Amino acid sequence: MRGMNSFAVEVEDLVKRFGNFIAVDHIHFQVKKGEIFGFLGPNGAGKSTTIRMLCGLLMPTSGTGTVAGFDIHKEPERIKQVIGYMSQKFSLYDDLTVGENLHFFGGIYGLWGQLQREREQQILERTGLQDLRNRRTRTLSVGLKQRLALACALLHQPTIVFLDEPTSGVDPLSRRNFWSFIQEMAEKGVTIFVTTHYMDEAEYCHRLAMIYKGKIVALGTPTELKMKTLSKGVLEVECDPLIPALDLLKKADWTSEAAVFGEGLHVIGKEGIDTDQELKVLFESHGIILKRMEWIRPSLEDVFVTLIERETKS
Fold it and tell me: Domain range spanning residue 244?
């Protein structure tokens, strides 16, 4: 593998089997220092399994990898000392106060004395939790628990932070505030590795790996993925009636994908097809009123659905 001059994480041919089930299937990627790297995929795709291997919590079946220059096979304990990890379930103790949770995790990371007290104060201020120091954790909202879990993961000032579905179940405003904080950290040189199944969140990432059934099906910036996967764009259609039109499009042999999007439809035709012309003919022959039709830039959701369709059919 290449040196760690510019990469915080490097993975080559990584595999994790549980019996006959392959959870992670020969994946490889690199994460640059200071990058927000997104791992995007549905539940059960292999995102959490990969993160647990990179964090030294799960031993790979085969393949190689380094995190902050440490080998995931030989040096998992060294990795645990230099990373921050925030799991899906927020590993907090409900009976402890905000301050006690921070103090407990600080001890796990080897902090003590004056340094620990200073770090706790700094992170409470940075995450806006200073007024809640003495509140029992069980009384906090999901959004505040998320903030506390992140504070615990950042207490020892790690250079790489792994966030596993960090905004699952969190309200939209808390999600937006959370991502503002993540972007601030990246600007200060912290590497962020985040798993998500929210397409709007994936847009915040500098680069994305799309994973499906344990395999990486695409890798690149959000813009690159859109251009590579759907260079022609997506046909946005407004019509009446909507659902019968959708049923017709789904049955048409020239359609790759058709789905409801807002008050209209997003339609993706197969390669080499004159999609807009085919659609006009189809609608006219079935009495569907076409109100508007326009080629637009694809969303990440369009890209992901298209890639999954290709994988399913291949």
Answer: 227-313
